[in-house]
Amino acid sequence: MKRCTRHKILIAIGTAAAITLTSGFSQITTFTGGNGTSNWNDAANWSSGVPTASSVVEINANPSGGLLEIDNAGPSVIASLRVLSGNVTQNFRIADADTVDSLKVNGNLTNESSSTVAVELPFFAGANATWTGLFNFGVAETKVGTNQITLDSGGIGFTTTGNLTVDIGTGISEYGRFLGSFGLTMAAGSNVNISITGAYTGVDGDVFDFLVTGGFGQATLDLSGATLGGGLTWDTSLFATEGKLSVVPEPNTLALVALALIAFVFMPRRAPAMAVEKKRV
Q: What contacts 168, CB < 8 A, 6 or more positions away?
């Protein structure tokens, strides 16, 4: 008979296991409008102190005077921003007191209320975020970089003073764009700046679709920061209606190619040499 062997299970008793929370865990910091002010940098206005880069920021009250003023003498970085439904009942602005403050939201941007949030300071978007609800960007630059933003629903728009900057990195595999079934509303006088921040110099036939749904409408397109090389230029004919830019040869290059083809067609041919038969003497 085989001997039955039982496996021993060792249980450590009285051993404390340490759990370490990393920076990947975000804490919820709620704006409660404490102290009767609307200063972002006032800890009394927040449930857990002034928001940091790991904070999930929730706006739970109407900012005093319709203004949530950022005055940190530098950039403010947070994990995400959410305006709570039912608690915010008035339009309000997020703005800065001077020209050195900015706001970067690394994650989602959500407005669940029916009121409009106007973002009126330099704004930087994080990678692969979803924007939902009534937001209006204006006065300062909104920079998407090479990140992909999904527009879920609501009224994402740019005012007459709005500046949207979208970057191209290495090419059609790395560039900023807006995904989803909802488009942007660009007012007349707003600007869309396309800049090349990577090594891309252009490939004939490349198509950049910056806005999957709709186009950029009345916005003014600025390509001064997106110069192409090798006799290439941008075809902007579909930018307003479909949000697309295509790389094509410059007109001068096309003209030279056409001339070369014409010259080839009408080039004189050498007549075939006639065989001369030698007579025998």
A: 146, 174, 175, 176, 194, 195, 196, 197, 198, 200, 208, 226
Per residue in 118-167, pLDDT tens? 999 999 999 999 999 999 999 999 999 999 999 999 999 999 999 999 99
**Count of positions (residues) in the chain:** 281
H-assigned helices in 53-109: none
What is the amino acid identity at position 179? L
CB 142 within 8 A of CB 119: yes
Contact 80, 65 (CB under 8 A): no
Q: Which stretches of 100-153 are assigned E, i.e. beta strand?
A: 102-105, 109-111, 117-120, 123-125, 129-132, 135-137, 141-145, 148-153
First to last CA, the chain: 121
CA–CA dist 247, 227 (Å, integer): 11
Give burial (CB, 10 Å; 0-12/13-18/19+) of 143. buried
Q: What is the DSSP letter of 81?
A: E
Give the global pTM.
Answer: 0.81
Tokens representing residue 79 in the block? 């994990």
